[in-house]
Amino acid sequence: MKFIILALCVAAASALSADQISLVQSSYAKVKGHSVDILYATFKADPSIQDKFPQFVGKDLEAIKGSAEFAAHAGRIVGFFSGVIDDLPNIGPHVDALVATHKPRGVTHAQFNNFRAAFTTYLKGHVDYNAELEAAWGATLDAFYGAVFAKM
Ligand code: HEM
Questions:
Q1: Tens-place pLDDT, residues 39-92
Q2: Percentage of the chain surpassing pLDDT 90?
Q3: CA-closest candidate to residue 98, choices 80, 75, 79
Q4: What number does the ligand 1 atom closest to the CA of 116 have?
Q5: Contacts 24+ apart (CB under 8 A), 105-114
Q6: Domains defined for the chain, CATH in brackets
Q7: Which of 70, 77, 86 most suits a substitution to test ligand 1, by most atoms within 8 Å of the C-beta?
Q8: CA dihedral over 24, 30, 36, 40, signed as positive or negative
């Protein structure tokens, strides 16, 4: 069953139109430099995500936001996500890498979904988020998340 879901998600990513890929890539380019703010929005929306990080657990989010450690981690997450967006529609290797590193950490689907929601809210506040863009991002994130969830 999981294999069928995975095959459908990879097919869904391949089914993204060239226009959709270009909309996603050009809108992402406007926020990819905002890694600290994106990680901050994610931790704020779901403190249980912050608590998974040994270096951040129990700390005041407002205080750690300006630290070099926070910036370094934000850069790693957003850098990884940039790789996914740059390589669309070829999500396979990125899915495998994320599952290999995050499944053993016990990251839940709910936490991943909360990252998605926080990122989407952030994007909406920083680009002209019209219906076309919403559909393109929806299709991209459905494909990526569907493939990740089929493996974890
Ligand atoms: C939403 C729930 C998530 C949780 C709870 C989580 C948790 C973690 C933890 C605990 C680490 C290790 C940090 C360290 O040792 O310094 C980590 C590393 C990392 N995470 Fe996540 N993560 C989540 C989502 C994501 C997402 C959505 C991405 C990419 C789009 C991502 C990309 C990375 C990368 C690139 C690293 C560094 C490499 C590694 O150690 O695996 N994470 N994550």
A1: 999 999 999 999 999 999 999 999 999 999 999 999 999 999 999 999 999 999
A2: 90
A3: 80
A4: 27
A5: 105/52, 106/52, 107/52, 107/152, 109/149, 109/152, 111/46, 111/48, 111/49, 111/52, 112/145, 112/148, 112/149, 113/145, 114/42, 114/45, 114/46, 114/49
A6: 2-150 (1.10.490.10)
A7: 77
A8: negative
Atom of ligand 1 nearest to the CA of 52: 10
Quote the longest CA-to-CA distance of the chain. Answer: 45
Q: Would you say residue 4 has pLDDT above 80?
A: no
Token reading at 25 = 């890539």
What's the confidence (pLDDT) of residue 2?
Answer: 66
